[in-house]
Specification:
This protein is of the alpha+beta class. The strands form three sheets. A three-stranded antiparallel β-sheet has the order 1-3-2. It has a three-stranded mixed β-sheet with strand order 4-5-6. A hairpin with a 2-residue loop joins strand 2 and strand 3. Helix 6 packs across helix 8. The longest helix has 13 residues.
């Protein structure tokens, strides 16, 4: 179980109790203000706890959904354009406009922890939108894996998500020609 400092303080009554639990290997300090009863945790679980308003996206989400076997070295997060900036070496941040930020957000579980992550349909739209910024081979691998699951995708959601972007027609044409 991952605990924030506030949760650890409540559980162990004070800073001394937290230190004692760390020394007795009851909990481990995994990041500033983040503690866990497990030594090795997935970075997505840690950063989802540390930044509860952030949403896992792009490379991290593609790996989570098994659309690629490439293990990202950093965690890719989306945050609101008006949120306080996150400065961590192993995080890549996308600042998203508030009106589309939470669209497609769902909650999944990893290492027994709940994480905020975009659904497959939103990720497909993001992949198409950022096609020119992604290495060709990596893009093709993910698109090919989307083709394999195309029948299970919710087309209504995809159309709804596409309608939120200015270049909806171009995105839609690309999507239809490459996936469906």
């Amino acid at each position: 179980m991952i605990l924030t400092y506030k949760e650890a303080y409540k559980k162990y009554k004070n800073d001394y109790g937290i230190e004692k639990a760390i020394n007795n290997n009851e909990i481990y300090k995994v990041s500033r203000g983040i503690y866990s009863d497990k030594k090795n945790l997935d970075l997505m679980a840690i950063y989802s706890k540390k930044y509860p308003n952030a949403i896992i996206t792009m490379d991290s989400a593609f790996y989570f959904y098994k659309l690629t076997d490439f293990i990202p070295q950093k965690v890719y997060l989306s945050i609101s354009r008006h949120a306080r900036p996150i400065k961590e070496d192993d995080i890549v941040i996308s600042y998203i406009d508030d009106k589309i930020f939470k669209i497609g957000r769902c909650v999944k579980e990893i290492d027994g922890e709940k994480i905020n992550i975009y659904d497959l349909e939103r990720l497909l739209v993001e992949l198409i939108r950022k096609k020119s910024q992604i290495p060709y081979d990596y893009y093709k691998e993910i698109i090919n894996n989307y083709r394999k699951i195309a029948d299970s995708l919710d087309m209504y959601k995809i159309e709804e998500y596409l309608a939120l972007f200015k270049n909806e027609v171009n995105l839609s044409n690309t999507l239809l020609s490459e996936v469906f």
